[in-house]
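Many introductory courses stop at the sequence. We go one step further.
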Amino acid sequence: MDSKPDTIKISASHKEEIFATHANLHVTVKGSSIVNGAEAMRKAKEVTVLLEALTRLGIKEEAFSLQGVHIEGAGGVLLKSSSAAYRLKICCDDLNQLAEMLDVVSSQKNATLEQVEWKYSEEEARERGLNETLEKVKAKAQKVATALNVKLLGVYDFIENAYDEEQPARTFQPQAMMTKRGGGAVPEPSLGMDIQHSKTIHISVDIWYRVSEF
């Protein structure tokens, strides 16, 4: 155990819930033909149908990117008739559009939503949390020093710890949209998943202050 003579240890922590500001949709589209590279975004029929539908919502072209192409052949044999699975990442910068985007994806029979990757603007929250934690430590250190009748001489050691606590997102349920596709009426929203998400930022600080003799 490390010895820190003539010191007092002061600890404080802070936690804050922040909400996602944007998201990435990871979608797999099964195509009837094999097109490689950037050409897949323009020439793979099933991919272009999905992207055109999303573009009509106002989603910009730069929001779409191809992550990979997987060739599917019967019996493991590559033939002209082989199909391909296109892995797409679609950026949703405005979460107000997320429900509509999910609706479009679910309406495409060849498209499957694999994951919603939540993104956060967290730097400001982390900086604010650290500042608040340091203020707590300073006030607590002064209070302890006064009670012990010692003077704070400076900082001997400083340790900061930070971690995020994020609940698992609800799984997307494509079957929730099947009634809608068939023409029947369903209550809105019928996505069966979160369209907003949050996580909690935890920050803790341990400071050893050098003090005058007791």
